[in-house]
Specification:
Protein name (chain B): FGF1 intracellular binding protein
Order of helices and strands of chain B: EHHHHHHHHHHHHHHHHHHHHH
InterPro entries (chain B): FIBP (IPR008614)
Strand content of chain B: under 5%
Radius of gyration of chain A: 29 Å
Pfam families (chain B): FIBP
Helix content of chain B: 55-70%
Mean pLDDT of chain B: 89
Oligomer: heterodimer
Structural class of chain A: alpha+beta
Strand content of chain A: 25-35%
GO molecular function (chain B): fibroblast growth factor binding
Largest interface: A-B, 53 and 38 residues
Radius of gyration of chain B: 25 Å
C-alpha cells in the first residue's frame, strides 16, 4: 500500500451553458481513481464555479498508480433527470512517481468531451505521497524515468546504456465489443480512451520492470504505438533503450561527475540482485538468472524463450570475428570478439537512439530493414477455435482470460522480424543496430510489420579503456562465468571510460574521429554484397563506401560540406482487391519491387543533389484496399569522408532516331544543370585534394554512374532483393519505357525550397548551426480523393508526388515570414483510409537562423574540416594496434586494386565511354547495406520472447551540439503560460534544466454534425488545435514550459459525409521539460534569481 | 485529384494580417484569393494559385474559429486552444472591433435592433462595405451596447474592460453606445457633412458633462449612458434668458460691447444675436422631450450653424462669439442659474466649434 494520491478541485471557468432556461450551469465534479470515486458539492448557477474542494485522498498500490489515470468528470446537476456530463480530464500521474520530476500537478486543464470537444477548463491540484517501498515482490516500476528523446537527455549523463527493451499488450477494442451496439458513441469513445490509457500505463510499468531488472533507471528513445486491428483487437506496443542515467548538477552541467560511474557500478554486482528468483517463472533457472523476472500474469517461461534464441540465424561468432584476423593484429581481433560476443549474447542488440555520446559509434554499416505481411484474423488462440465461427459469443467472453496468449503471437511476429534485422546486421559485419524503429500498416485483416535500423559497430575501445578502472578485471573475470551458467541473456556491461582515462590517452572530447563512422565495418574480401570502396577522403587510411544510408542523425563530429536537404522518394502501386491470403500474397509480391523503386528514386535524387549520404532514412510502406504506397524521407548530406558522387547518365536504346537523340541530350543537359544548380544551392564545393597528400593512388572521382532498371528476379517464397542486379554492369538510366521517362521527369520536377528555406528530417540541419530562438511546430494534414477513372501506376505516382510537393510548397508559403529558416524533423506519414483517399500528415518544426553568421561558420567549417582531416590522421596514429594495423592489413591490397582502376581510367578513353566500361560494382555500392528480406510466413506460434539487455557504459560528458553553445540573441522574453512544442530534443537558444516526465496522450473525437462544424477540415483543424491545447495544459500543470521530442504517432481519420459524421483518433507523445533561455541563464547565474523572472524557470530552480 | 481535407495547425496560431483584413472586410475566399493574386504575392513568393487558395482557406477557417472567442475578448486571453502571443491577441481584437467610418455614420443614433439589421443590405449597397462586414460591425455595436448598457461607472472604461480595446477605440464605442441609447438623429441630409469624429467628440463631452455620472456627488448612480434627467429638467430655467426681454437686451449689449471691433462679422452678429440666442436657449429648454433630444444635432445645425455659415462667419469669430456669449451671462445680475448655464454652455460651445465646418 505504498502511495497516497491527493486531489483537490479548485474551480472551473468558461463552462458551457447546460440549462437553457437560466443560461447557466449547476456543475459538480466526480474524481475517480481505480474503483474509488469522490464528488464535490454542486456549485449552483455559474459558468465559473468555485468548488475549492477538500483534498480527496486515494490510498492505492503503486502498481495502480502507474497503470491508472486519474479521471475527472465535470457534470451538470439535474434534480429531476440524469446528470449531464460536461466533459472529462484524464491526468497521467506517472510524472509524480519519480523523484526528480514534477512534485505537483496544478493548473487549468481543458475539459474534454469526445463529441463536443473542449468545453471550458478546470483547475486541479494533484499530489502523490509515495511511501518508500522495500517490497521485493513488487510489480510496479515506480522511479524508472521515460524519455521520448532518442538521445541521452540534455541534463543527464549516461552511465550505462543497457540496451533494447520492448513489450506489448493486447486487448479487445471496446469499439468492437457487443456492448457498443447499445451504448452511446460518447460512452464507447470514453471506454476506448480509458482502456488505452490503462494499457499504456501497464505497458510502461512492465517496461519499467524490465529496466529495473537490468539495473537501469531510465528508458530513452521510448516509442509507444497503437495498432488498431479492428475486430481482432487493439495492440499497444513499445520499444526503447534501457539506460542508467545520472543527473548532471545544473551548475556544472557540462562537467562530468567523475566519481559517479564507479558508484553506479557498485550497485551492479550480481549477488546484490534485489529480484528473488521466486519470481522468475522458469523453474530450473539458476540463481543468477533472476535478472529476468516476469509478471505472474505472463504465462511464458524462460526456457521457451531461450530455445527461441537458438533459432538465431547466425552463428554466435559472427563474421566480424572471422574477419578480424585478416584486418588487424590479434589484440584488436580479441577486442572485437569480446565486444561482439558480449553483444551477441543479447537477443537483440538494438538501440532506439539516433544520436550518441561521442566515440560510442565506431562504424556504420548501413540500413537494415525487414518487413513481414501477416493476417490478423488468424491470431486467435487455438483453444478457442471451437467458438471462433461465432464471433458474437466470443465477444461475450472476458477478454482477460481469452486474450492471455495473444500478446505472444504478436511477440513472436516481432521476434521474427528482429531476428532478421539482427542477421542482416551480422551480414554487414556489425554487431549492433542503432536508430532502430518498428512500425505497422494495417488494412482490414492484413498487416505489414516493418522494422528498420542502422547496422553499426559500437566502440570496442570503451571496453579497452575501461581496463584503467580497477573494476574491469573483476568484470572480465565474471563474464565467462556468467555465460557458462547458460543464460543467453548476459548482463554484460561495457566499461565506463572516465574523463580521466580518456584524457590520459590524449583523447579530447572535441577531437572526434570525424570520418571513422563512415569506414566500412564489413570485411572487404567477404562483402555481403558487391560494393565500390575507396579510401576515406578524410583520413586516407580506411575504406569507405561511395554512398552511405543510415537511419540515425548525423553524428555531431561528422564533417560535412555545405548544407543538407530533405530527400523523398514517393511511390504508389496498384493492387487488386483480394481477400485474406490472396491479398497477403499479392502484397508480399509487390513489396520487393516497391523497395527497389524507392531505393532507386532515393539514389537518383541524392545524386541529383550532388550528395553522398542519407541520414534519418525512414521508409514507410502503407497498405490500402487497392494500392500500396511507399514514402521514404531522409536528409541528404555531403560527407567529406566519402567520394564525390558521380552524375546521372541517360541513354536510350534506340540510338538511330535523330530527334530521340536530341531529346536525350536535352534531358541530359537538364540533369547536369540541375546537379550544378543544386551544388551551388547547398554550397557543396568539396576542396580539391591533391593526390600527393595521400601518397597512394586514388580513383579519380567518377564522372558518371549509371542506373539500370533490370527486371527483378521472380518472387519466391522468400525473396532476397539484390539491388546490385547481380554482376550486371549498370550505369545508365535508360529511358526507353515510359516508366523511366516518368522517373526522369519526376526527378526534375522536384522543385527546391524557395530561397531562405531549408528542410531536413533529422534533428538538426547539417551546415546550419546558428539557430535563433523562434520556433514554430506545426501539423498539416491533407486528404486527397483520387478520381477513380483509369487509375494507373503512373497517374497514381504523379498524384501522390503532386500531393507531397504541393504540401511542402504550402508549408514554405505559410512560414515565409520566418525566413531565413529551416524545417527540421519533417515527418511525413501516409495512410489510405479508404479506397480512393490518400491522407498525408506532416509534423515538423520551423526554426529561424541567422543568415549572416551562417556564411561565416560554413567557411570556418570547411577550413576546420580540412584541418580536422590532418588532426585525425595524427590522432588515429595514437591508437596502438587498432586502426594502424587495420590500415596495414588492408592497404596493400586495395591500393593495388585502385591502381588498376586508375590506370584504366587514365587510359585515354573518353569520359563518356569510360563510364560504361569501368566495372564499378554498380548499384550495390550505393545501397551499401540494403538488404531486404520480405517474407510471407505461415503463423508460427512462438511462446514468449525474451528481450536482452545490453549495458554499455560510457562516461564521456555530455557534449552538446556546437550550435547550443552559441548564445541566442536575447529576444522574445517568453510570456507566462506559453508552452513551446518541438519534435526536436532541444530548444534553440535555451537550456533544458529539467525533465518533468513523459507526455503520452490519446484522444478520440467524433461528430454527428460534420457540416455544422465546418466540414472535415473544420472538424480536424479544431481537433488538432484542441490536442495541442491539452498537451500544453498538461505540461504547464507539471510546471513545464515546453515539450521536446514531440511526435504525433497516430492520426486516424474516418468520415462518412453522407451521415454527416466523422471520427478521429490522435495519439501524441513527448517529454515535458523546463527550459531557460541562455540569455536568462546568464542573468540568473550572475544575479540572484529574481522573482519576476519567468515563474516556470524559477520554480524549476527551487524544485531542484 | 481534389483535396478533401487540407489543414495546417501551428503550436503558435499563425495570423496573416493581410488575410485577416480581407476576412474582416467580408470577402469570400475566392474574392480574397483574387485580391491576393492582384497584390503580386505570387511573384514575390513563387507560390502557385493552389497554394494561395489553400492558405487563404486555412486562415479563414482559423478566423472563423477565433470569431466565437472574439465576441468576448477576455475569453480569447484565457482560452487554451489557440496559443497566440499577446501582441497578436491585441491586434486581433482591435481589428475585429474596428469599424468603417462610412458604416458607422449610417448606423449612428439608430436603434440597434433587428429592424436596423434588416436594413444592412441597403447600407452595404450605399457605403460599398460588404454586407458581411456590415453585419460584423453592427453585431459588434449591439454586443458592446448590450454588455455596457446597464453598467455603472465610466462608459469607455467599462467597454475597455470588457472588450480589451485600445483607449481610442473604447471611446469611439462609448460614442456609438451613447448615440444608440439616446437615438440622436444623425442621418438627415443637413447633418451629412458631420464626420463620425465630430459626433464622437460631442458624445464624449456630453458623457462627461451631461450624464448623471458627471456630477461629482452622484457616484453611487454613475450612469454614463443616459443624459441626466434632472439636468434636462433644470435646463428649462434657462428660458428666462430669451423670454425676459430686458435680460436678452442686456445680454446682447454685453456681448456686443465686448466684441466690438474684434469680429469681422460684427454687424451680422449684432443683427442675428437675438435669433441665435433664442435658438440656443430654446434647444436647452426643449431637451425634456425625447423627440427634441433626438433632434439635438439637427437643431444645432439649423438654429446656429447654418445661420452663421450663411453669413460666412469665420471659425475664429464663432469661437470669440461663443466665449463671450457664455461668459457674459455671469454679469447678468438677474440670472440665478450660473452653474447650470456653464454645464450646458461649456459642452455646447465645444460641440458647436467642432461642428462648425463645411
Amino acid at each position: 500500500m505504498p502511495g497516497k494520491l491527493k486531489v483537490k478541485i479548485v474551480a472551473g471557468r468558461h463552462l458551457p451553458v447546460m440549462d437553457r432556461a437560466s443560461d447557466l450551469t449547476d456543475a459538480f465534479v466526480e474524481v475517480k481513481f481505480g474503483n474509488t470515486t469522490f464528488k464535490t458539492d454542486v456549485y449552483h448557477k455559474s459558468l465559473n464555479p468555485q468548488w475549492n474542494s477538500e483534498w480527496f485522498k486515494f490510498e492505492v498500490d503503486d502498481e495502480d498508480l502507474q497503470d491508472e489515470p486519474l479521471q475527472i468528470t465535470v457534470l451538470d446537476h439535474d434534480t429531476y433527470s440524469a446528470n449531464d456530463a460536461i466533459g472529462k480530464v484524464y491526468i497521467d500521474i506517472d510524472p509524480l512517481l519519480y523523484s526528480e520530476a514534477a512534485t505537483v500537478i496544478s493548473g487549468w486543464f481543458p475539459i474534454y468531451d469526445t463529441i463536443h470537444g473542449i468545453r471550458g477548463e478546470i483547475n486541479v491540484v494533484v499530489k502523490v505521497d509515495l511511501f518508500n517501498d522495500l517490497n521485493r515482490f513488487r510489480q510496479s516500476s515506480c522511479g524508472v524515468k521515460f524519455f521520448c528523446t532518442t538521445s541521452i537527455p540534455k541534463c543527464y549523463r549516461a552511465v550505462i546504456i543497457h540496451g533494447f527493451v520492448e513489450e506489448l499488450v493486447v486487448n479487445e477494442d471496446p469499439e468492437y465489443q457487443w456492448i457498443d451496439r447499445i451504448r452511446t458513441p460518447r460512452a464507447s469513445n470514453e471506454a476506448r480512451q480509458r482502456l488505452i490509457s490503462l494499457m499504456s500505463g501497464e505497458l510502461q510499468r512492465k517496461i519499467g520492470l524490465k529496466v529495473l531488472e537490468m539495473r537501469g533507471n531510465a528508458v530513452v528513445g521510448y516509442l509507444q504505438c497503437f495498432d488498431l486491428e479492428g475486430e481482432s483487437g487493439l495492440v499497444v506496443r513499445a520499444i526503447g533503450t534501457a539506460c542508467t542515467l545520472d543527473k548532471l548538477s545544473s551548475t556544472a552541467a557540462f562537467l562530468p561527475a567523475c566519481n559517479s560511474p564507479s558508484k553506479e557500478m557498485k550497485e551492479i554486482p550480481f549477488n546484490e540482485d534485489p529480484n528473488p528468483n521466486t519470481h522468475s517463472s522458469g523453474p530450473s533457472t539458476p540463481l543468477k538468472n533472476q535478472t529476468y523476472s516476469f509478471s505472474p500474469s505472463k504465462s511464458y517461461s524462460r526456457q521457451s524463450s531461450s530455445s527461441d534464441t537458438d533459432l538465431s540465424l547466425t552463428p554466435k561468432t559472427g563474421m566480424g570475428s572471422g574477419s578480424a584476423g585478416k584486418e588487424g593484429g590479434p589484440f584488436k581481433a580479441l577486442l572485437r570478439q569480446q565486444t561482439q560476443s558480449a553483444l551477441e549474447q543479447r537477443e537483440f542488440p538494438f538501440f532506439t537512439l539516433t544520436a550518441f555520446p561521442p566515440g560510442f559509434l565506431v562504424h556504420v554499416g548501413g540500413v537494415v530493414s525487414a518487413r513481414s505481411v501477416k493476417l490478423l484474423d488468424r491470431i486467435h488462440n487455438p483453444a478457442f477455435v471451437g467458438i471462433m465461427g461465432n464471433t458474437r459469443s466470443y465477444k461475450l467472453l472476458d477478454w482477460n482470460s481469452f486474450n492471455s496468449d495473444e500478446p505472444e503471437t504478436r511477440d513472436a511476429w516481432w521476434a521474427e522480424i528482429r531476428q532478421e534485422i539482427k542477421s542482416h546486421a551480422k551480414a554487414l559485419g556489425c554487431h549492433a543496430v542503432v536508430g532502430y524503429s518498428e512500425s505497422t500498416s494495417i488494412c482490414e485483416e492484413v498487416c505489414i510489420l516493418s522494422a528498420s535500423g542502422t547496422a553499426a559497430v559500437l566502440n570496442p575501445r570503451f571496453l579497452q579503456d575501461g581496463t584503467v578502472e580497477g573494476c574491469l578485471e573483476q568484470r572480465l573475470s565474471w563474464q565467462p562465468g556468467f555465460f557458462s551458467i547458460g543464460s543467453e541473456k548476459g548482463e554484460v556491461d561495457f566499461f565506463p571510460q572516465s574523463q580521466d582515462s580518456s584524457s590520459l590517452l590524449g583523447l579530447e572530447e572535441n577531437l572526434p574521429a570525424g570520418c571513422g563512422f563512415c569506414h566500412i565495418p564489413y570485411d572487404e574480401l567477404n562483402m555481403p554484397f558487391p560494393a565500390h570502396l575507396t579510401y576515406c577522403y578524410s583520413c586516407r587510411k580506411q575504406k569507405v563506401p561511395d554512398v552511405l544510408f543510415t537511419t540515425i542523425d548525423l553524428p555531431a563530429d561528422a564533417t560535412v560540406i555545405g548544407k543538407g536537404c530533405l530527400i523523398q522518394a514517393r511511390l504508389c502501386r496498384l493492387k487488386k482487391k483480394a481477400q485474406a491470403e490472396a491479398n497477403a500474397t499479392a502484397i508480399s509480391n509487390l513489396l520487393p519491387f516497391m523497395e527497389y523503386e524507392v531505393h532507386t528514386q532515393l539514389m537518383n535524387k541524392l545524386k541529383l543533389k550532388g550528395m553522398n549520404a542519407l541520414f534519418g532514412l525512414r521508409i514507410q510502406i502503407t497498405v490500402g484496399e487497392n494500392m500500396l504506397m511507399g514514402l521514404a524521407s531522409a536528409t541528404g548530406v555531403y560527407l567529406t569522408a566519402l567520394p564525390t558522387p558521380g552524375g546521372i547518365q541517360i541513354a536510350g536504346k534506340t540510338p538511330n532516331d535523330g530527334s530521340y537523340e536530341q531529346h536525350i541530350s536535352h534531358m541530359q543537359k537538364k540533369i547536369n544543370d540541375t546537379i550544378a544548380k543544386n551544388k551551388e544551392l547547398y554550397e557543396i564545393n568539396p576542396p580539391e585534394i591533391p593526390e600527393e597528400i595521400i601518397g597512394s593512388p586514388i580513383p579519380e572521382p567518377r564522372q558518371r554512374s549509371r542506373l539500370l532498371r533490370s527486371q527483378s528476379e521472380s518472387s519466391d517464397e522468400v525473396i532476397e532483393l539484390d539491388l546490385s542486379h547481380g554482376k550486371k554492369d549498370a550505369f545508365v538510366l535508360e529511358i526507353d519505357d515510359t516508366d523511366a521517362m516518368e522517373d526522369v521527369h519526376s526527378l526534375l520536377t522536384d522543385v527546391p525550397p524557395p530561397s531562405g528555406f531549408y528542410s531536413c528530417n533529422t534533428e538538426i540541419m547539417p551546415g546550419i548551426n546558428n539557430w535563433t530562438s523562434e520556433i514554430q511546430m506545426f501539423t498539416s494534414v491533407r486528404v486527397s480523393r483520387l478520381s477513380n477513372i483509369n487509375l494507373t501506376n503512373q497517374t497514381l505516382n504523379k498524384n501522390f508526388n503532386d500531393l507531397c510537393e504541393n504540401l511542402l510548397k504550402s508549408l514554405y508559403f505559410k512560414l515565409r515570414s520566418m525566413i531565413p529558416c529551416c524545417l527540421c524533423h519533417v515527418n511525413f506519414t501516409v495512410s489510405l483510409p479508404e479506397d480512393e483517399l490518400i491522407q498525408v500528415t506532416v509534423t515538423a518544426v520551423a526554426i529561424t537562423f541567422d543568415k549572416h553568421q551562417a556564411v561565416q561558420t560554413t567557411k570556418t567549417q570547411v577550413e576546420k574540416s580540412s584541418q580536422r582531416a590532418s588532426i585525425d590522421n595524427e590522432e588515429l596514429l595514437q591508437f596502438p594496434l587498432e586502426l594502424c594495423t587495420d590500415t596495414l592489413a588492408s592497404h596493400p591490397f586495395s591500393s593495388a586494386k585502385e591502381h588498376l582502376e586508375s590506370t584504366s581510367s587514365n587510359s585515354g578513353i573518353p569520359a563518356a565511354q569510360r563510364a560504361t566500361s569501368i566495372d564499378y560494382s554498380s548499384f550495390a555500392d550505393r545501397c551499401n547495406s540494403w538488404i531486404e528480406l520480405i517474407k510471407l510466413k505461415a503463423q508460427t506460434i512462438r511462446r514468449g520472447s525474451i528481450k536482452t539487455t545490453m549495458p554499455v557504459e560510457k562516461a564521456s560528458p555530455l557534449t552538446e551540439g556546437h550550435f547550443r553553445q552559441r548564445s541566442a540573441p536575447a529576444c522574445a522574453n517568453s510570456t507566462v503560460g506559453v508552452v513551446k512544442m518541438t519534435p526536436l530534443s532541444f530548444i534553440p537558444g535555451a537550456k533544458i534544466t529539467k525533465y518533468l516526465g513523459i507526455i503520452n496522450m490519446f484522444f478520440i473525437r467524433e461528430t454527428t454534425s460534420l457540416r455544422e462544424e465546418g466540414g472535415v477540415s473544420g472538424f480536424l483543424h479544431a481537433f488538432i488545435a484542441e490536442v495541442f491545447a491539452m498537451v500544453r495544459a498538461h505540461v504547464a500543470a507539471l510546471g513545464g514550459n515546453a515539450v521536446v521530442s514531440y511526435i504525433m504517432k497516430q492520426c486516424v481519420f474516418m468520415e462518412n459525409p453522407n451521415k454527416n459524421q466523422a471520427q478521429c483518433l490522435i495519439n501524441v507523445s513527448g517529454d515535458a521539460v523546463i527550459f531557460v533561455r541562455e540569455s536568462e541563464l546568464e542573468i540568473i547565474s550572475t544575479q540572484q534569481p529574481i522573482a519576476s523572472c519567468q515563474p516556470a524557470c524559477s520554480g524549476g530552480e527551487i524544485a531542484t | 485529384m481534389t483535396n478533401e481535407l487540407d489543414i495546417f495547425v501551428g503550436n503558435t496560431t499563425l495570423i496573416d494580417e493581410d488575410v485577416y483584413r480581407l476576412w474582416l472586410d467580408g470577402y469570400s475566399v475566392s474574392d480574397a484569393v483574387g485580391l491576393r493574386v492582384r497584390s503580386g504575392i505570387l511573384e514575390q513568393t513563387g507560390a502557385t494559385a493552389g497554394v494561395l487558395q489553400s492558405d487563404t482557406m486555412d486562415h479563414y477557417r482559423t478566423f472563423h474559429m477565433l470569431e466565437r472567442l472574439l465576441h468576448t475578448p477576455p475569453k480569447l486571453l484565457h482560452q487554451l486552444v489557440f496559443q497566440i502571443p499577446p501582441s497578436r491577441q491585441a491586434l486581433l481584437i482591435e481589428r475585429y472591433y474596428a469599424f468603417d467610418e462610412a458604416f458607422v455614420r449610417e448606423v449612428l443614433g439608430k436603434k440597434l435592433s433587428k429592424g436596423t439589421k434588416k436594413d444592412l443590405d441597403n447600407i452595404s449597397a450605399k457605403t460599398g462595405v460588404t454586407l458581411k462586414s456590415c453585419r460584423r460591425q453592427f453585431d459588434n455595436f449591439k454586443r458592446v451596447f448590450k454588455v455596457v448598457e446597464e453598467m455603472r461607472g465610466s462608459l469607455a472604461g467599462n467597454i475597455q474592460q470588457h472588450f480589451l480595446l485600445s483607449d481610442r477605440l473604447a471611446r469611439d464605442y462609448a460614442a456609438v453606445v451613447f448615440f444608440a441609447n439616446n437615438r440622436f438623429e444623425t442621418g438627415k441630409k443637413k447633418l451629412q457633412y458631420l464626420t463620425f469624429g465630430d459626433l464622437a467628440f460631442c458624445a464624449e463631452l456630453m458623457i462627461q458633462n451631461w450624464t448623471p455620472g458627471a456630477v461629482a456627488d452622484s457616484q453611487l448612480d454613475d450612469m454614463d449612458v443616459d443624459l441626466d434627467k434632472e439636468f434636462l429638467q433644470d435646463l428649462k430655467e434657462l428660458k428666462v434668458l430669451v423670454a425676459d426681454k430686458d435680460l436678452l437686451d442686456l445680454h446682447k449689449s454685453l456681448v456686443c460691447t465686448a466684441l466690438r471691433g474684434k469680429l469681422s462679422v460684427f454687424a451680422e452678429m449684432e443683427a442675428n444675436f437675438k435669433n441665435l440666442s433664442r435658438g440656443l436657449v430654446n434647444i436647452a429648454s426643449k431637451l425634456t422631450h425625447t423627440k427634441d433630444v433626438r433632434d439635438l444635432f439637427v437643431d444645432l445645425v439649423e438654429k446656429f450653424i447654418e445661420p452663421c455659415r450663411s453669413d460666412r462667419w469665420p471659425l475664429n469669430d464663432v469661437r470669440l462669439f461663443l466665449n463671450q456669449y457664455s461668459a457674459s451671462v455671469h454679469s447678468l445680475d438677474g440670472f440665478r442659474h450660473q452653474t447650470l448655464w456653464d454645464r450646458y454652455m461649456v459642452t455646447l460651445r465645444s460641440c458647436l466649434l467642432r461642428m462648425y465646418h463645411d
